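Working notes for the structural subgroup meeting. M.R. asked for a predicted model of this chain before we commit to crystallization trials. I am recording the input and output together here so anyone reviewing the notebook later can reproduce the run.

Input as submitted:
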Amino acid sequence: MSIFEELESEVRSYSRGWPVVFDRAQGSRLYSEDGKAYLDFFAGAGALNYGHNNPHLKKALIDYIQRDGVTHALDMYTVAKRDFLETFREKILAPRELDYKIVFPGPGGANAVEAALKLARKVTGKESVINFTNAFHGMTLGALSVTGNSMKRGAAGIPLVHATPMPYDKYFDGAMPDFMYFEKLLEDSGSGLNEPAAVIVEGVQGEGGINAARLEWLKGLDDLCKRHGILLILDDVQMGCGRTGPFFSFEDAGISPDIVCLSKSIGGYGLPMALTLIKPELDVWEPGEHNGTFRGISPAFVTATEALRVYWSDDELEKSTKAKGERIASTFKDLVESYPEANLVAKGRGLARGLEFGSGELAGAVCKAAFERGLLMETSGPDGEVMKLLPPLTLTDEELSEGLAIITESVAAVLK
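Returned structure, recorded in token form:
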């Protein structure tokens, strides 16, 4: 591994917790170059909802490449893009009665967020954006301005302005009615709060510690935004594409945000792709006003289209995700009860689950113990205090049982 340490920047992170060289991957497993198998409960930080090298998606991709399908096309019209747009409308938008136009903002989640912020300010003529405590929206400057983590914000090196944080759901542990603080500031001409262009929120905060907003809280936020003429941006980069059960994390709340950000698993195969969905009346862009070289990576269109056809033609994946999520919740409940002195907290929704420890040191130690037993998972939260699970949605019941057994052993090894 010396070549990585000699040439790769010190900014690398995941490789420090998993110090092996990986060579192959299939389904829910990664294999090191010496052949050891690791059960993957991280799934590319949510970019591999359908697993590694999914055979359905791989065949579609190989067929496309072998026929010399267009790989790079900027925002030109291609067969691959047309197939994706038609399939996305048929499988996702139409069944949910959602009316969005699609911006292809670039290859990653931060691109989707930057486009959303830029458009909200253009539409409204206002500068300020409301974000939430413990939010994470990306590493570029605009996305960092609405991100909560002080370490990530500090790396910007310049003031991050035109954004104001508000308390996320349960931030005050029920000591304050929902949105009382936010709405009071909006209505008080002496509060000093600039009238916002938009509010940006995650249905479940992934990097922030697997904080799952109550559905009624999301509905209340939507109502508040409508009353005050504020655009609602829903960042579903990590929690979209079925991670919480439904395709979108906000579906069960019965809302339709003004702007939705998607990336990670929208490409299906782990290929770079991002979408910014916008209500038609917000489509005020001038041609080329928001631009980028990698807005149309056709192989990602191909695998995205196949993923929608295979997994979103019915509700089987949604049902499976919710059921497996409940199995994790049950195991976490048992762990909480088994170690009362540790004050563990089980968190999450669907197959985005977390177990909160008293410190980042403990959570990290559990993840290290799990790695030694052949399971990959990471930490999240402001101090890394949450053990985070983001397994592929396609993992088998047997793989889930195997992973939960390793987690139980690892928690015991650290806490006992």
